[in-house]
Fold this protein.
Amino acid sequence: IETARASRATMIKSCFTVLENKIATPENKDICMRIISPAGTELTNSDVVRFEMDGGREGIASVKRRVNYQNKNMDLCIYYEVETDLEMGTYIVEIYAEGHQIGKTSFALK
C-alpha cells in the first residue's frame, strides 16, 4: 500500500527504464540503488553493499540487483526493505550501473 507517512513506510520502490545502448556489452549487470536520508546518510540494511562510483570513489548502496541486460530498453523496479524507522523529510534516490549514475529522483515523507 502506498503511503507518504514515514511511520507507515516498510518498503521503498523505484521503477525506471534502462535505455538501449548499442555499444554496451550484453551481459549480467549490477544495478545499485542508493537512498540518501534527509540527514544525508545512506539507508542500508544488515548487508552493506559497496560499489565503485565515478572517479574511483567508494559508494554505499541501499540495495543491488543483478539484471541480464541485452542492449534493449528494459523496464525495471528495485525494492528496498526498510529495517529501521524512517524520518520525515526529503529522500534522494540515485541509480548506478557500472559505477555511473544513470538516474536520480527524490520523494518526501511526512
User: Anything to note?
Assistant: The chain has no helices and eight strands. The mean pLDDT is 93. The radius of gyration is 14 Å.
